[in-house]
Amino acid sequence: MKTLVVAATKAELTFLYQHFSLQEGDFIEDKNFDVLITGVGMVATAFSLGKHLSPKYNLVLNLGIAGSFDRLVELGKVVNITEDTFAELGAEDGENFIAITDLGFGENTYKSNSTINTGLPKVSGVTVNRVSGNDKNIKNLIKRLNPTTESMEGAAILYACHYEKINCLQIRSISNYVEPRNKDNWKIGLAIKNLNDWAISFLTDMN
Ligand SMILES: O=C(O)c1cccc(C(=O)CC[C@H]2O[C@@H](n3cnc4c(=O)[nH]cnc43)[C@H](O)[C@@H]2O)c1
């Protein structure tokens, strides 16, 4: 049995590639774990997992950066997102939003089923197609779902693992606050470094 490490971009795993001397490519099979680079967003992630997820894996480790709605979470902090919601799945009804659950078309929230103790704070997140950058939309999201994090892939990975009955961890490092877009405020380098430090130590200890 093996672990599948899943990330949207190779840049988010820069130091992991270096540390384990991984080959180039978007799907790398190594001795103790495989690495899958899916591309950004839910569709790319679902397509890529559809091609590579299989029962030979007993753990999917989703690694990435994320935005935080909570200003008390410092930039660069690594968190364990144990619950994630497809925030846009539903229907607009004037100023209101009807979630897919209320429309009767299934679930929008998926949980991490892993019992592994990561030593990281557990938070809940939302997954979106469009990075939130509008004050009104951000307030509505907080009021409706009270998430800590926002990403563009998380819930899709938990979804696939739920239906394939494979344990899943979603570990992300906070690169920015969810706010009207200002890339100058993002701490991508710090977030990637902290994320990779955690992942290298986790994958080393696991084997
Ligand atoms: O600009 C760069 O140097 C750079 C390097 C590595 C990765 C990126 C990305 O933009 C990765 C996109 C990735 O980030 C997640 N993310 C981060 N913050 C947010 C957010 O506030 N809302 C939604 N998603 C966020 C997302 O999962 C993307 O896959 C850039």
From TrEMBL:
Pfam families, per database record: PNP_UDP_1
Domain called Nucleoside phosphorylase: residue spans: 38-194
Keyword Hydrolase among UniProt keywords: yes
SUPFAM superfamilies: Purine and uridine phosphorylases
Pathway field: Quinol/quinone metabolism; menaquinone biosynthesis
GO molecular function terms listed in the Swiss-Prot or TrEMBL record: hydrolase activity
Entry's EC annotation: 3.2.2.26
HAMAP family to which the protein is assigned, alphabetical: MqnB
Family: Belongs to the PNP/UDP phosphorylase family. Futalosine hydrolase subfamily.
PANTHER family: 5'-METHYLTHIOADENOSINE/S-ADENOSYLHOMOCYSTEINE NUCLEOSIDASE (PTHR46832), FUTALOSINE HYDROLASE (PTHR46832:SF2)
Function in brief: Catalyzes the hydrolysis of futalosine (FL) to dehypoxanthine futalosine (DHFL) and hypoxanthine, a step in the biosynthesis of menaquinone (MK, vitamin K2).
Name of the protein this chain belongs to: Futalosine hydrolase
